[in-house]
Write a structure and sequence with these properties.
- By secondary structure, this protein is of the alpha+beta class.
- The protein contains three helices and four strands.
């Protein structure tokens, strides 16, 4: 038995994912950029934000946003379920923690 047998081999090491943050003013193209990156790179995962604003025509729950009532969003804030959140134009927007952490742990 080699003295190195109890250590993980580099090819057996599970790599934790890497988080990229894309931030810009509304209308600058964040959605177009991130959806293109995800379409071109199968190892990338897109984080879906939550909001209290109403869905716009063509938007789907869990695709563009997770649409929440104000009460549900505030309960998520109180429970520490967001990585970050803010109020914009009177509506809440935030990044749910659980899906991001799961993607990172899976190496995405």
């Amino acid at each position: 038995m080699s003295p190195h047998d109890d250590h993980a081999k580099p090819w057996e090491t599970i790599r934790r994912g890497l988080l990229f943050l894309v931030s810009s003013p509304a209308g600058a193209g964040k959605t177009s950029l991130t959806r293109r990156l995800v379409a071109d790179h199968s190892d990338l995962t897109l984080s879906i934000s939550a909001t209290t604003r109403a869905a716009r025509p063509g938007e789907e729950e869990g695709r563009e946003y997770y649409f929440k009532t104000r009460e549900a969003f505030e309960a998520m804030i109180a429970a520490g379920e967001f990585l970050e959140w803010a109020t914009v134009n009177g509506q809440y927007y935030g990044t749910p923690k659980a899906p991001v952490m799961a993607a990172l742990e899976a190496g995405h």
